[in-house]
Amino acid sequence: MTTTLGRPGTRPSAARLGLYRAAIELKTFFRERDAVVFTFALPAVILALLGAIFDGVYPGSDVTSAEYLAPSMIAAGIASTTFVNLGTGIATDRDDGTLRRLRGAPMPPSAYVIGKILMALVVTVGETLLLLGIAVVAFDVRLPTDPARWFTFGWVFLLGTTACALAGIAASSLAGSARSAGAVMHLPYLVLAFVSGVFFTPVGALPGPLITLGSLFPLKWMAQGFRSVFLPDSILPQEVVPSWEHGRIALVLAAWCIGGMLLCLTTFRWHGRRGR
Q: Which segments cross the bilayer (predicted)?
């Protein structure tokens, strides 16, 4: 037996299959021009609209409402690109038989998951650069000059993107069909965006039960991590904690990465419910 992906007589690893799958996913994504436009436009438009609506400076700081909003919207953009888009796309793949054909290749679920996550990482980088550009140009958000802050941005971005992507892959099994996938994925995303303080500034003004609910999910911690990168410590009185809690952010996001992978491997379905 020979294969184009490895040495004769050997089966390619899941990681290598995942890289090939990621390349295919990226080509497919960028060929769908309407999907590309709306994927990038949704968080950018929300940031532009809310940034124009919110006005004022927080007491004890020179941070404006728009500056406070921008890092949170970067987190929301990542969640939209990963959780919503991945969940919807996988439900569509399952409904139209794409996953069934991949299963016959054969392809292990881990390779498919790796391909989807790598595709999401690439798209999310572009989304983040767009939102940063809008924040800097339109709302005078100041980019940090301290390398330590960019290091924080890097690990929050990587852990947050992976956690949201895995959650989206796992949640895709909740959709009964491709038609219902959009509604199934958007409802929890919008609820979590509100309880995580993305659309509500400052976060400390949220009711206590909502703050507790949002703290159970990665979006709240990802947004907090990004605010720690772009905002001065003088804004901390507006938060719900006296410090940025980088250790807790890393712990929660890493836990969601591990838990999300376990959920994917245990709940992932190759066939739709009607195909059983």
A: 35-54, 74-92, 113-138, 150-175, 187-211, 249-268
